[in-house]
Specification:
Blueprint lengths: L2 H5 E2 L17 E6 L14 H9 L5 E2 L4 E2 L5 E7 L5 H19 L4 E6 L4 H12 L4 E5 L19 H9 L4 E6 L4 H10 L2 E4 H7 L1 H14 L4 E7 L21 H15 L2 E8 L10 H21 L11
Parallel strand pairs: 2-5, 2-6, 6-11, 7-8, 7-10, 8-9, 10-11
Antiparallel strand pairs: 1-5, 3-4
């Protein structure tokens, strides 16, 4: 029995509402209901189930990929059962995620549903263990570059700091950032972290933003990419139900266009992703969970369109 068998628990709901065997699936969903370090609006531990529920009530056709994701099998492996202590939780998440990466060997997109952003330290670490050249493309309102927050170095506010310290900054790019301390921006600049603020994206235009990310993907030799989407990258008008909302965010079409065009036009391969910081108790009418479900669908569509161009497609039986 492996760690995934021991610590993954299945609930009554699966993403999209249709069961699929993992070995037959194009993408695998893993819930990580963890929010022990949330500092403002806790509740992201309820997000995996809320996102699954939203996914049963939206359409799966992607206009950008011109693909109906509903034609493909998506496997839902359930949620990782976790201890409260951040170090213990991160250790378990990384071990389970690494086992899944080993078992499914990159031909299926792993989509991790948080949970707070702390989980990314572990999920990205697992993918890095399997694919050492993987780059980290993160969409986030915050830099998360604090050395510690509330005396905890593994807080959600320290995620990127821990990743940069362990893996370096050359393979990191932050999109949509707009909330940080003076110390964080000074650290970002001194460490050479590449980033685009939401303000600069509006001034430069989407095409220039996409081209800058593409240049980074080429320069950093990013053959494989891990995408992390903190839902607070979206403006609170579109995603009010997050742990730490910030004004002047990006609109959904901007995030999806940047994601699609930068990855597709650079021929990079997206192998894993996470969607974090949805807080259902603070989500007006469930619209943040719906947008998170839509985000997962678009990530899967991007994976399908990049992987299966004119080839055999593991479609759902009709």
């Amino acid at each position: 029995m492996g760690l995934a068998d021991l610590y993954l628990t299945r609930g009554s709901m699966v993403f999209g509402g249709v069961e699929a065997k993992p070995e037959d699936s194009i993408a695998l969903i893993v819930g990580i209901p963890y929010d022990a370090t949330s500092s403002f609006r806790p509740g992201s531990r309820f997000a995996p189930q809320a996102i699954r529920n939203a996914a049963t009530n939206i359409e799966f056709y992607s206009l950008r990929a011109m693909i109906d994701v509903d034609d493909y099998r998506i496997g839902d492996l359930g949620d990782i059962y976790l201890p409260l202590n951040p170090r213990d939780a991160l250790r378990r998440i990384e071990d389970v995620a690494y086992e899944l990466a080993e078992q499914y060997s990159g031909d299926k997109l792993l989509v991790f549903l948080g949970g707070e952003h702390t989980i990314t330290i572990a999920t990205f670490g697992a993918i890095k263990r399997k694919y050492s050249d993987t780059c980290f493309l993160v969409f986030d309102a915050h830099f998360d570059l604090r050395n510690q927050y509330m005396e905890d170095p593994f807080s959600h506010a320290c995620v990127l700091r821990r990743i940069v310290e362990k893996y370096g900054s050359d393979k990191v790019f932050v999109v949509g950032v707009r909330a940080f301390t003076r110390e964080e921006i000074e650290y970002a600049n001194s460490a050479g972290i590449r980033y685009l603020t939401s303000h600069s994206i509006r001034l430069l235009g989407l095409r220039e933003a996409i081209d800058r990310i593409k240049r980074w993907l080429r320069t950093a030799e990013c053959s494989t990419v891990y995408v992390s989407i903190d839902m607070d990258v979206f403006d609170p008008a579109y995603a009010p139900g997050v742990g730490n909302p910030e004004p002047e965010g990006l609109e959904p079409w901007q995030v999806f266009d940047i994601l699609f065009k930068s990855i597709k036009e650079s021929n990079a391969k997206i192998i894993a992703a996470d969607i974090v910081e949805v807080s259902p108790p603070h989500d007006c009418s469930g619209i943040t969970s719906i947008l998170a479900a839509r985000t997962a669908v678009e990530l899967i569509a991007l994976h399908i369109s990049s992987k299966h161009v004119g080839g055999d497609k593991p479609r759902r039986d009709i």
